[in-house]
Amino acid sequence: MSHRTMLNWELTGIAFIFTAGSVLHFLFALTGHWRPIAWFAAVNESVWEHLKLTFWPGLIFALIEYLAFGQRYKAFWLAKWLGLLAMTVLIPLLFYGYVAVLGRHNMALDLLIFLIAIVAGQLLSYTVAVRITAHQAFSWLGVIGLLAMALTFIVLTYNPLHNFLFRCPQTQQYGIAVDLRESA
C-alpha cells in the first residue's frame, strides 16, 4: 500500500469524523436522554462533551483503517493516539482563545474549529504513521494512550469535574443534568 492511499484514507476520515461527530452532538437528546448512550454522545454543551465528538468517531475510523491496512504501519496506533490527542487539545485551545479575543462564542467559528482540529489530527496521524518506522512497541504506547482516553471520557461523562471545561454554558450544570420537563 502506498503512502498516497493512506493519505486518501486520512482525508476520508476527516469527512467521517466530522459527519459522525455532528450526529453524536444530537444523539443524546434524540434518544430521549438515554443514559447508556451518554458515554459517547454529547450530554450537554460543555467543551468537554464536544471533545467526545472527535474522539469516538476518530477511534471508530481508526479501527476500520486498521482492518484495511493499519497492520502494515509499525506506529499505526501511536499515530492514531497522537492524532486524536491533538484534536482534543486543539478544540479547547482554539475555542477559549477566540472567545477571549471576541468576548463571546460564535457557532460558525465553533464549527470551523471542529473541522480544523479534525484536519490537523488526521494529518498528524498520517505523518507519524508514515515517518516512524521504529519498533512495534511504539504502537502499543498508542493503544495504551487510546484506552486511557476512552476510559477518561467514559468516567468523566458520568462523574464530571466541576470546572469550566465541564460546565454547560446554557444550564451552568455539569455532566448529565437533564431537566425532565424538557424531555416530557
* Number of helices, counting only DSSP H or I runs of 4 residues or more: 6
Which runs of at least 5 residues are low in confidence (pLDDT < 50)? 179-184
> What's the gyration radius in Å?
17 Å
| Sequence of secondary-structure elements | HHHHHH
Number of domain modules: 1
The coarse overall form would be globular
What percent of residues are in strands?
under 5%
Mean pLDDT, nearest integer? 91
Question: How would the blueprint of this fold be written?
Answer:
Elements: H1 3-30, H2 47-68, H3 76-102, H4 107-131, H5 137-158, H6 180-183
Care to describe what's here?
By secondary structure, this protein is mainly α. The protein has one domain. The chain is built from 6 helices and no strands. The protein has helices spanning 3-30, 47-68, 76-102, 107-131, 137-158, 180-183. The longest helix has 28 residues, at 3-30. It is globular and about 50 Å long. Mean pLDDT is 91; it is low at 179-184.
Short description:
The protein is mostly helical. It has helices at 3-30, 47-68, 76-102, 107-131, 137-158, 180-183.
Kindly list the characteristics that best describe this protein.
184 residues, 6 helices, disordered C terminus
